[in-house]
Amino acid sequence: MIGAHSGPGSRIIRPIMQNRLTDNFPIRLLVLLLMVAMLGISGCARDTRDEERGPEELYEEAHRSLQAQNYSRAIDQYRRLTTLYPFGRHAEQAQLDMAYAQYRANEPERAIGTLDRFIRTYPTHPNVDYAWYLKGLVHYEETMSFMRRLFPGQVVDRDQSSAREAFRDFQELIRRHPQSRYVADARQRMVFLRNVMAEHEIVVGEYYFRRGAYIAAINRAKYVIETYPQAPANINALDLMARAYTRLDLPELASDTREVIRHNYGDVDIEKEHESLWRRIWPFD
Question: Which among 169, 95, 100 is positioned nearest to 139, based on CA atoms?
């Protein structure tokens, strides 16, 4: 009985549901087309209004959004300006301002992309030094966060690719524009980045030492001394080398290395130096 009743019923219900969907389909399609048309008309109207105002007014509007720290709105406004008016001083400055807004909006990849385009397009622009500086700053901030500033020991445990990129960007700024007003700040940040990268190599070297890979630890220590000759981590690199030589039963090399430590650093308490990591990697007030 159940099977006999459900069979015909199911045959009746399915066509009715299909007919309803079919009947409603043209209405839904019409509504969708109307919405698309309204959006298109709205976009055209906005484009017309923007073209009537001109690049200067559009730039001022975007700049106000930037000053108000409404970065997402500023990015959109700068992008529209550069689309409608791709040439001229307002478009050029808009790209730099947009990159800064992207940086502040925590969009580092987009900021770097915008800055790279600016540098390629306007290599002789009077503000290209700022583009190099901002590019370095974006990479620099990728290596730092609020917690990393509070706990600098966490900085050296992380991937150092952004630190290396920032160092190269600041280095390129100094090489290309030695008279730039951003050079002094860039140099100071480079010192910090150098110290962090050196400390990172020591962390890796200590890991090798704990694992019994003493030759690998020695090679890391040598790399620090050769690559970062003025970094505070050099004393730790020499200490690591001396301990590794001792474990390898090479007493003469261990003794010679400790003599270098005494000659260059006197009777420094290396354990105490480890405790003052922040002062060693950031020697500025």
Answer: 169
Structure tokens at 64: 């106000």
- Structural domains of the chain, ranges and CATH numbers in brackets: 50-125 (1.25.40.10)
CB 193 within 8 A of CB 166: yes
How far CA 10 is from CA of 21, 78, 128, 174, in Å, comes to: 17, 59, 73, 79
Q: How many CB atoms lie within 10 A of CB 124?
A: 5
- Asked if pLDDT for residue 282 goes beyond 80, the answer is no
205-236 burial: b if 16+ Cβ within 10 Å, else e: bbebbeeeebebbbebbbebbeebeebbbbbb
Tokens (6 digits) for 251: 């007493």
Output the six-digit token pair for 80.
């529209």
pLDDT tens-digit series, residues 82-91: 999 988 899 9
Q: Per-residue pLDDT tens for 92-144?
A: 999 999 999 999 999 999 999 999 999 999 999 999 999 999 999 999 998 77
Position 83, amino acid:
T
What pTM, to 2 d.p., does this model score?
0.72
- On whether the CB atoms of residues 228 and 199 are closer than 8 A, the answer is no
Rounded Cα distance between 271 and 57, Å, is: 61
DSSP string, 3-67: HHHHHHHHHHHHHHHHHHHHHHHHHHHHHHHHHHHHHHHHHHHHHHHHHHHHHHHHHHHHHHHHH
Planar angle of CA 138, 122, 106, nearest 5 degrees: 20
Evaluate whether 94 touches 82 at the Cβ level (below 8 Å).
Answer: yes
Q: Residues in the chain, how many?
A: 285
Q: How many helices (H) and strands (E) are present in the chain, helices listed first?
A: 13, 0
